Amino acid sequence: MPIRDYIAEFLRTHGDLEIDTIPPDATLNDLELDSLTVLSIIVLVEKKYGLQVPEQEVIAARTFADLMTLVGIPVAPAS
Questions:
Q1: What is the spatial distance between Cα 6 and Cα 4, in angstroms, rounded to a whole number?
Q2: Count of beta carbons in the 10 Å neighbourhood of residue 68
C-alpha cells in the first residue's frame, strides 16, 4: 500500500477525514489533529516504510502539506 493510501486510511479511520478534500494549507489544528495524532502517523509510517523523520521537523509541522512533505509526498499548493 502506498504511503499516501496508508495515511488516507488512518485519517479516515481516526479523524473521519477524506484526504482528497483536505486543502494543503489546512492547519493540523483545523483538522483537529493534535500533536499525539501527528506523532502516531509519523511513527506508524516510519515503522511500516522504513523512513526516518527528524523529531524537530515533526514538531515544526503546522499544515497538512507539512505533514505530507515529511513522509515524502509532494503536495500542490492550494489554488
A1: 5
A2: 19
Q: For the segment 19-75, what is each residue's pLDDT rounded down to a tens digit?
A: 999 999 999 999 999 999 999 999 999 999 999 999 999 999 999 999 999 999 988
Please, are residues 41 and 67 in contact by the beta-carbon 8 Å criterion? yes
Written as nine digits, the cell of 4 is 499516501
What contacts 76, CB < 8 A, 6 or more positions away?
A: 24
For the chain, how are helix, strand and coil distributed in percent, rounded to 5?
55, 5, 40
Angstrom CA distances, 5 to 10, 55, 60, stand at 9, 23, 23
Q: CB under 8 Å to 3, separation ≥6 — which residues? A: 45, 49, 71, 72, 73
Cα distance between residue 56 and residue 52, in whole Å: 12
